[in-house]
Every structure is written in C-alpha cells, then in structure tokens.
Design a protein that fits this description.
This protein has helices at 2-14, 47-58, 70-79, 143-149, 161-170, 181-188, 217-230, 232-242, and strands at residues 25-30, 62-67, 84-88, 97-98, 104-113, 131-134, 154-157, 176-180, 195-210. The protein starts with a helix and ends with a helix. Strand 1, helix 2 and strand 2 form a beta-alpha-beta unit. Helix 2 runs antiparallel to helix 8. With 243 residues, it is α/β, with parallel strands linked by helices. The chain has two domains: 12-103 and 206-242, Periplasmic binding protein-like II (D-Maltodextrin-Binding Protein, domain 2, 3-Layer(aba) Sandwich); 105-204, Periplasmic binding protein-like II (D-Maltodextrin-Binding Protein, domain 2), CATH 3.40.190.10. It is globular.
Length: 243
C-alpha cells in the first residue's frame, strides 16, 4: 500500500499535479490589457495578473502568464496549447471551464472626438454611428448583437489595441470606439484629454478559464471559487495601488 501511494504521488508529480488534484504549474494566455494585465509592466504587471499570482502563490502554484494578440490567446487556450485564459468572458471561449466567481469587473464605455455630437443612450443609438472595435472581443449586450447584425456599421481591427483605435478615431475612420474606461485612460494617459466619454454599458464581470482536457481543471476551478471571495480585500488593495 505504501509503495502504491509513493507510485501515485510520483505519477501525479510527473503530471505537475499535487496529491489533492491541484496543479503545481499553470500557464495562462492573455493580451496586453492594462491595468488588468500589462505585458511590459515590470513595476505594474497588472491588477488581475498580480491578484491571481498571489492567490496561486498561497497554494504554491507557479503561474506563468503569456501575452498575445487577443484572437491568438483565445486560439491557444481553446486548442489546449496553453492551460487557459487569465481574463475572459464566456462568449469569447465557450468551450473552456470558467470560474463561477469573477476575478474582477470591467465597464465598457464609448469614446468619441470632441465636437462629435453622437452619444450612446440605448441600442437604437448604435445604428447612427460607425463603431470601432477589436476583433473577437466580447463587449456585452447590446453591442455584441449589434456587431453581428450590422457589420456595415463596424470597423474591426486585429491588433494595436487602444492606441490604434484612438489614432483611427482621430483620423475619422469611424465615429466612436468602445473599451473599458480604465483601459482607455491607462493606455492613452495625456491623450485622453482629446476624447469625450459618451455613455457606458453596465459593469460586467470577467473570469479565469481553463481548458477542459486538463485533469486538474475542475479541482482548480472549484478551489478558486472558494479562494476568490475570501481574498477580495487583497484585490481591493492591489486596485488601489493602480488607481
């Protein structure tokens, strides 16, 4: 029996799994989405990056974060080439296993140039503007439905993030773009004075997601669903250091 236990432990370690079914190492993909996840942020790696790293460290789980364009990050996670996604909503990668407790929340807001009278009030107001978006991002309703139903009113970019959206907005390639308000202010800093915020969607949660083929996927998600509510003070402290 002792020999069997030793063999089992050795087998689990070879799979990078602890004896309770949790992994010893996790690799998650994300995109450069400061202040939540920052690719070149030595002093500020990102709120979610810092938070999840500390939660995992409590359990001696080694976390590696890899940065890609968002479309590529989703492809890698859904194909199992990485273990999952650091920041995602279910509509972006529906075949992954998501925590039921969010890691944080975001709020999508609309931005346009000063002098443009357009503003977001409801789904009908979307019909009167050409909207700039990033490919494969989940923005929430009614925007996601509008993107599907009115492609002629959408300008999609595949890379470059907020700085590229800002540049194209200033060049009048579209009337407004949408993204998280904190992300926009972090990315543009002094340039944000050239923008006008013209309405927001509801505050929305985002989650950590794991590929279902990982043998430890469900144990890890179950463990996180207990740990995340118990560590909210830590999250708030990290948020405060960024704001």
């Amino acid at each position: 029996m002792l020999r069997f236990s030793a063999l089992l432990l050795s087998y689990l370690i070879s799979l990078d799994v602890w004896s309770d079914g949790l992994p010893s190492k996790v690799t998650l993909a994300t995109t450069d989405w400061c202040p939540y996840a920052c690719e070149n942020g030595d002093n500020f790696p990102g709120i979610t990056h810092e938070y999840i790293s500390r939660v995992f460290k409590d359990r001696n789980i080694e976390l590696t974060i890899q940065f890609f364009p968002w479309t590529r990050a989703i492809q890698l996670a859904q194909s199992g080439k990485v273990d999952g996604l650091l920041t995602a909503v279910k509509s972006e990668a529906p075949n992954l296993i998501f925590t039921s407790v969010p890691t944080d929340t975001y709020q999508m807001c609309f931005f346009t140039r000063w002098g443009n009278p357009w503003e977001y009030t409801n789904s009908d107001s979307l019909k009167s503007a050409k909207l700039g978006i990033i490919q494969n991002y989940g923005y929430g309703e009614p925007v996601d439905q509008h993107v599907q139903s009115s492609p002629d009113r959408i300008y999609t970019i595949t890379g470059g993030g907020i700085p590229r959206l800002y540049k194209m907005l200033m060049s009048k390639r579209f009337d407004a773009f949408i993204d998280d308000s904190k992300v926009v202010r972090w990315a543009l800093k002094s340039s944000v004075k050239d923008l006008k915020q013209v309405g927001c969607l509801e505050n929305n949660p985002f989650y950590l997601a794991i590929h279902p083929d990982r043998p430890w996927a469900k144990p890890l998600v179950t463990w996180l669903d207990k740990q995340l509510p118990a560590t909210r003070d830590r999250l708030r402290a990290i948020q405060q250091s960024y704001y």
